[in-house]
Write a structure and sequence with these properties.
This protein is mainly β and about 400 residues long. The strands form eight sheets. Strands 22, 23, 24, 26, 29, 30 and 32 form a seven-stranded antiparallel beta sheet that branches. Strands 3, 4, 6, 7 and 8 form a five-stranded antiparallel beta sheet that branches. The protein starts with 10 loop residues before the first strand and ends with a strand. The protein has strands at about 10-15, 20-25, 30-40, 45-55, 60, 70-80, 80, 90, 100, 110, 125, 135, 150, 160, 170-175, 180-185, 190-195, 200-205, 210-215, 225, 230-235, 240-245, 260-265, 265-270, 280-285, 295-305, 315-325, 340-345, 355, 360, 370-380, 395-405, 405-410. The chain folds into four domains: about 10-90, Sandwich (Immunoglobulin-like), CATH 2.60.40; about 95-165, no CATH class; about 170-205, no CATH class; about 240-410, Sandwich (Jelly Rolls).
């Protein structure tokens, strides 16, 4: 097998301030190509600058001096030798066109708009940097974006990164009274989008992708989603506990076995005695934001006029009878209810000190937004669920209904 023929049509396809892109035609029998460069048309200066694999018909020669003339030749080779050189081609690199992307007390840092880069992930050290700034460019062929800036030391005063038309910016604002990072986006709906300091990250304007903003773990498992109408939806472990505080006047006292009514310094109370299972009734409709099958708890805030004596600890039992009904169901509380109990203790010296009951927790399998929960809340004075040996009245001044929500602010 003979050495390959000389490649034809060597040309400089792209000219930039830092080099060239060259192409040539393929030849038979080659196993690769050699690219040669010279600054004096191969009179005294000639160097091989690239060895290319078989069938590779393009090459970048970068890192050259701006506004300088260069000459190139190409040859092909195989195991039997190297072809003759092609005719030389030449061109002059462009002058630099420096764009300032950073201005500070030790700046500026510029990058060259006339430079070319062969790949999206090619890293090129900034053409000019001063002081404590080290800049790496990770450019794209189209727009040469600045992808990484390292600040070495602490002498930077409010450095700024911006795009070519100066309408998209990230600024590290440093002053005596604040240190903030500001994010500005240009174009339609542009302006300051967000500000971050040591205490918070504040979204100044909606930031969306296809109308949706996600915050958390990136929208994988546990995150908050905000859509354009303002609705907030929580996923995974992202949840909010909503509370309905119900005063005694807002629950129904039945005809049979109701708690007594009283005032404590002008505030209404329900007084549950120690001999009868006295009850109140309440219903709630689960709001549109209720998280399906999410927990629902009932707490009671109460006090006793006279606590236990002689170092004793008295036990108190609360009960909840409940039932879930949905739109279209028959309204009845006569059957299909569930009973749960919660045990509390009242200790010596607790005269009129506020207690909060342990939660009366509902089993919420199948509960969804829009369902109605019917409830009977009672003191289990008979001790059916737990021991109840507190003497005298238990005086309730607030009922808490707590439930998990995963949506906020739905527009419709």
């Amino acid at each position: 097998m003979a050495a390959p023929a000389t490649p034809a049509n060597l040309s400089i396809d792209t000219t930039a301030s830092n080099g060239f892109e060259l192409t040539w035609d393929n030849v038979a029998l080659e196993t690769g190509f050699y690219l040669y460069r010279s600054t004096d048309n191969f009179v005294a200066d000639s160097r091989r600058v690239a060895k290319l694999a078989t069938d590779v018909l393009t090459a970048f020669d970068l890192g050259l001096i701006a506004s300088t003339q260069y000459y190139y030749k190409i040859s092909a080779f195989n195991g039997d030798g190297e072809s003759a050189f092609s005719a030389a081609v030449n061109d002059t690199t462009l002058a630099q066109s420096l764009k300032q992307h950073w201005q500070g007390t030790v700046g500026p840092f510029d990058y060259d708009q006339n430079a070319i880069y062969p790949g999206e992930n090619t890293k090129v050290v900034g053409l000019r940097s001063t002081g404590n700034i080290r800049a790496d460019l990770v450019p794209s062929i189209d727009n040469h974006m600045v992808r990484k800036i390292d600040i070495l030391g602490s002498a930077i005063n409010s450095p700024l990164i911006e795009d070519a038309d100066q309408d998209t910016k990230v600024q590290c604002e440093e002053s005596n009274d604040e240190d903030k990072i500001r994010f500005d986006i240009g174009g339609v709906g542009g302006g300051e989008k967000a500000v971050m300091d040591a205490n918070a990250f504040e979204i100044k304007q909606p930031v969306t992708v296809n109308g949706i903003t996600k915050m958390g773990d990136g929208g994988v498992t546990n995150y908050t989603k905000i859509v354009t109408d303002g609705e907030i939806t929580l996923f995974g472990t992202a949840r909010v506990i909503d509370v309905i505080d119900v005063e005694p006047d807002a629950v129904r006292r039945p005809v049979a076995n109701p708690p007594g009514e009283s005032l404590e310094d002008g505030f209404p109370c329900h007084d549950y005695n120690d001999t009868t299972d006295e009850s109140v009734f309440k219903h709630v409709e689960l709001t549109h934001g209720y998280a399906a099958a999410g927990l629902i708890h009932i707490h009671l805030d109460y006090f006793v006029d006279v606590g236990p004596v002689d170092g004793t600890v008295d036990n108190l039992s609360w009960g909840l009878e409940y039932k879930k009904i949905s739109i279209g169901d028959v309204f009845t509380f006569a059957s299909g209810t569930t009973l749960v109990y919660a045990a509390d203790v009242v200790t010596q010296g607790n005269n009129k000190k506020i207690h909060q009951s342990d939660p009366l927790s509902l089993t919420t399998t199948g509960f969804v937004a829009g369902d109605i929960v019917l409830m009977r809340i009672f003191r289990d004075a008979s001790g059916t669920g737990n021991t109840d040996n507190v003497s005298g009245d238990i005086r309730v001044f607030d009922y808490h209904i707590e439930f998990l929500v995963d949506k906020l602010g739905e527009a419709t």
